[in-house]
Specification:
Chain A: Pfam families: GCV_T, GCV_T_C. The structure holds two protein chains of two kinds. Chain A is of the alpha+beta class. Chain A is built from nine helices and 20 strands. In chain B, strand 1 and strand 2 form a beta hairpin.
C-alpha cells in the first residue's frame, strides 16, 4: 500500500476531502461525498473525473499503422487522423490482454490508451510486436500525461467556455470518438469526445504539470452548470448502466472479444498491401471463435427484487442449475432496481429469459434484457 | 470521530443503546465505509435474534455488508422510515437512522466508545 502511486491531481482530491481507494496500484478518489449524487450529476448535469492512472503509449513512425494492425485486433490503417477507435489487444490464444482506445493524432502518430492495471502488459506486448523493420517507435507517455474527463449533458457548455476562441467551433463539431488539439484555459490539450459513462462528454489529455490548475478551473467554471467532482464509484455504476465492459470483470485473459459480445472489434477483414488476410496476434483462434458455437455469452440481467447480484455470484435456472456467473452488478441509481452483467450459457441468453442469481444463499429473480440498461435520449 | 459515549459498540460496527428494548444501529464508520446506502434488509417485528448472528443486510451502490445482532432477544420495532429512505442511515446513523429495537434477553461482546474508537482506527 505504501508504494501506491499518486495522480498529478492527488493534492486536489485530498483538498476536496475525497475517500481514496487503491486502484491498480494507484491511490484514486472513490468518491468525494455521495457516490449516488455524483452518479446523478453526470446523468443530469456533469461530473469531473481524474483518469490519470490510465496509460498513454505513443506509437509513431511510417510503420505505426501497419505495426498496430499486427499487434491489435482492430484495423488501424483504416482509422482517419483525428479519430479514435475502441479496440483490444489479444494474446496469441485470443484471450483479451486489455481493451484500448486508440487515437490517430496524425497519419504516423497514434496514442494507445490502456487500463492502469494493464499498462505494463500492453507496453511489453507492443514492444515485442512492433518490429524495428516496421519503422514504428513506442514511447510511454503515461508519466507526463494527466487525463481529465468532463462527462454529462452540460459538459459541452462547460468546456466550450474554456477553449481558445479559434478552436471553439472545432471542439463543438467534434463527433463521438474524434479528437482535436486545443488550448483549454490556456493549457495545451488533446480534446477527445470519448467517455465511459453513457453520456456526452470529453476527455482531456494534458501535461501532468498543468493538470491541477486546469482541474480547479474546470471545477469553478462547471459549478454553475451543475458539475461536481466524481469518483471511481460513480464511474463504475455509470459504465455498468451504459453496458460497457470493465477489464477484470467482463474481460480478462480467459475471455475473447466475441464472448463479451464485442466480436465486431476483431477485424478479420484486415488485409496487407497485396490484399491477403493480414496476420495479427490471435488471428487464428479468433477466426475459429467467430464461427464457433460459443460456450458462454455476455448478457444483461434486470433484477426483479431488491437485493443486487454482485461480481462472482452464480446465475441459476429456476430449478437451481448453475448456468453462469455475474461479472458486474449493483443497484442502478438511475433505474432504481438492481442490474448486472453475466456470462451465461447460450441456451438461457435470450432476452426475456427468467433466471435467478444466488445472492448470498438466496435466489433473487432476474430477467435477461438487452444491453445497455441505460441509453441517453438526447 | 464523535462517538456517543452512552452507547455500546461491537467489532462489526453496530451500536446498541442501554436498557430494554434496546435500539440497534450501525456506526458512522460503517455508514461512511459503505457509501450511499440504497437498500436495507431488516428482521421483522416478533423475530427472535441471537447475538452475533446475521440479521440483515445493508447495501450501497458499491458494496453490501451484513448486519450482526449485538444482542439476543425479540425484535419489537423496525425503523420503517430508514427502510423507506436508507439515506438517513448515512446522514444520521446514531439518531434517525437507527435500525431496530430489541427486547433484550442477553448481550454479546460489547465495546465502550473508547474501545470501539481504537478498534475502528486500527
Amino acid at each position: 500500500m505504501n508504494e501506491s502511486r499518486h495522480s498529478p491531481l492527488h493534492d486536489e482530491h485530498v483538498a476536496l476531502g475525497a475517500v481514496l481507494t487503491d486502484f491498480a496500484g494507484w491511490q484514486m478518489p472513490l468518491r468525494y461525498g455521495s457516490d449516488v449524487a455524483e452518479h446523478t450529476a453526470v446523468r443530469t448535469a456533469a461530473g469531473l473525473f481524474d483518469l490519470s492512472h490510465m496509460g498513454e503509449l505513443e506509437v509513431s513512425g511510417p510503420g505505426a499503422a501497419r505495426g498496430l494492425d499486427r499487434a491489435l485486433v482492430g484495423n488501424l490503417t483504416a482509422l482517419e487522423p483525428g479519430r479514435a477507435r475502441y479496440t483490444m489487444i489479444c494474446a496469441p490464444d485470443g484471450g483479451v490482454l486489455d481493451d484500448l482506445v486508440v487515437y490517430r493524432l496524425e497519419p504516423e502518430r497514434f496514442v494507445v490508451v490502456a487500463n492502469a492495471s494493464n499498462v505494463e502488459v500492453v507496453r511489453a506486448a507492443l514492444t515485442e510486436r512492433l518490429e524495428p523493420a516496421d519503422g514504428a517507435t513506442l514511447t510511454d507517455r503515461s508519466e507526463q500525461t494527466a487525463l481529465i474527463a468532463v462527462q454529462g449533458p452540460t459538459a459541452e457548455s462547460i468546456l466550450l467556455g474554456l477553449v481558445e476562441p479559434d478552436r471553439v467551433e472545432a471542439v463543438r463539431a467534434l463527433r463521438y470518438y474524434a479528437a482535436v488539439p486545443a488550448q483549454v484555459d490556456g493549457v495545451e490539450a488533446l480534446v477527445a469526445r470519448t467517455g465511459y459513462t453513457g453520456e456526452d462528454g470529453f476527455e482531456l489529455f494534458v501535461d501532468s504539470a498543468a493538470a491541477p490548475g486546469l482541474w480547479r478551473t474546470l471545477l469553478a467554471a462547471g459549478a454553475p452548470h451543475g458539475l461536481v467532482p466524481a469518483g471511481l464509484s460513480a464511474r463504475d455504476s455509470l459504465r455498468l448502466e451504459a453496458g460497457m465492459p470493465l477489464y477484470g470483470n467482463e474481460l480478462d485473459r480467459t475471455t475473447t472479444p466475441h464472448d463479451a459480445g464485442l466480436g465486431r472489434v476483431v477485424r478479420l477483414d484486415k488485409v496487407d498491401d497485396e490484399g491477403s488476410p493480414l496476420p495479427f496476434v490471435g488471428r487464428a483462434p479468433l477466426e475459429a471463435r467467430a464461427h464457433a458455437v460459443p460456450a458462454r455469452t455476455l448478457v444483461g440481467l434486470e433484477g426483479l427484487s431488491r437485493r443486487a447480484a454482485r461480481h462472482g455470484y452464480d446465475v441459476v435456472t429456476p430449478t437451481g442449475a448453475v448456468v453462469g456467473t455475474v461479472t458486474s452488478g449493483a443497484p442502478s441509481p438511475t433505474l432504481g432496481h438492481p442490474i448486472a452483467m453475466a456470462y451465461v450459457t447460450p441456451e438461457v441468453s435470450a432476452v426475456g429469459t427468467d433466471l435467478a442469481v444466488d445472492v448470498r444463499g438466496r435466489q433473487e429473480p432476474v430477467r435477461v434484457i438487452a444491453l445497455p440498461f441505460y441509453r441517453r435520449t438526447r | 470521530m464523535s462517538l456517543p459515549a452512552d452507547l455500546h459498540y461491537t467489532l462489526e460496527h453496530e451500536w446498541l443503546s442501554d436498557g430494554s428494548p434496546a435500539t440497534v444501529g450501525i456506526t458512522a464508520v460503517a455508514a461512511d465505509a459503505l457509501g450511499d446506502i440504497v437498500y436495507l434488509e431488516l428482521p421483522a417485528v416478533g423475530d427472535d435474534v441471537a447475538a452475533g448472528s446475521v440479521i440483515g443486510e445493508i447495501e450501497s451502490t458499491k458494496s453490501v455488508s451484513e448486519l450482526f445482532s449485538p444482542v439476543s432477544g425479540t425484535v419489537t420495532e423496525v425503523n420503517s422510515a430508514a427502510v423507506d429512505d436508507p439515506s438517513i442511515v448515512n446522514s444520521d446513523p446514531f439518531g434517525a437512522g437507527w435500525l431496530i429495537k430489541v427486547d433484550v434477553t442477553s448481550t454479546g461482546p460489547l465495546l465502550t466508545a473508547e474501545e470501539y474508537e481504537a478498534h475502528a482506527a486500527g
